[in-house]
Amino acid sequence: MQGSPTDLIAPRRTSHGVDVAGVMVGGGAPVVVQSMTNTDTADIAATVAQVASLARAGSELVRITVDRDEAAAAVPHIRDKLAAMGVKVPLVGDFHYIGHKLLADHPAAAEALDKYRINPGNVGFKDKKDRQFSAIIDMALRHAKPVRIGVNWGSLDQELLTRLMDENALAGSPLDARAVMHEAIVQSALLSAERAQELGLGANRIIISAKVSAVQDLISVYTKLAARSAYALHLGLTEAGMGSKGIVASTAGIGILLQGGIGDTIRVSLTPEPGGDRALEVRVAQEILQSMGLRSFLPIVAACPGCGRTTSTVFQELARDVQDMIRERMPQWRERYPGVETMSLAVMGCIVNGPGESKQADIGISLPGTGEAPSAPVFVDGKKTVTLRGPNIAAEFKQIVEDYIERRFGSVSQGDAPRRHSA
Fold this sequence. Notes:
This protein has 13 helices and 17 strands. The longest helix has 23 residues.
């Protein structure tokens, strides 16, 4: 088959590249994965632990809440402890209402953060708005920091929205209220970005986000932003929800925009289960990008869903074991074997599609299906190499994977990883 899946994706929209402490956002760079802590930032130990966990899961930017003096005072200590642990992920400070005061009163925090996020809907009100917005931009200029101007429909600039609603009511063919809200979100972001540029902040230090909680709203707003500006864009639903609902909604909205070439950094804002793993949002964001063929983070395991021909649980257990092995071994593999993240595996349950699917993967195994003694051919680079039998199929297959990785990627220097095999 000629070409690749990404040939079907619209070319990436041209945007300004923003350097966030060495992580490039926009400007043609790969789409960046971002996450956010849910710890009290003033709790230094808890915040350090969660930032480290998110970074190790693959988050390339981590946002932390800076909502009061105690949180701002903790920021440089968090940065220093992460550095001592060898965690170098850029930290983004999330400011609302009093960001101008916190940055002025805590210059060590202003210096330690790698990016500021401000919300034009609550950066200040009436005559204070421009003054407080300007103060934050001045701090960004003083410390050479980029800024994310993050509009959120739940805290939208009411003065702007009211004006647009009034103008719409007087129009000959008024729009519906939702369309006016979309326009208010877009204008809030663009007017704020233009004001930041008037104050001296370059377009290559501005990122825009426009968070809404419904998929169609997200698509509409970002399509307008992309058509009317060249700022780098951060994608994501706000209040996406919990579990499968949040994953599906985020994937649908972000995926459609990425397919259209829109988006430079993404976050999947999942509501975690009580005590749940915050890093799930990172893994989902990575899987969106990898499933679309935009980036590779870890080897893909293709596995069939099972049917009446696969009443045994052998292939399900093997698929789970292989997936668990990859996640467990990936931190070491990533260091030792550049390019291993591009590898593909297949664990198939029966003889109907199993051999063909296995041949398409770099390494594949096809189990026999229902009512047969386990006899599983293994395919490597499209060719059958061995048939595994007996009770140790899982261990033997995992060893084949380890040996293949060592042979194929062990002598590869950084930046020279071979391209994925295709049969």
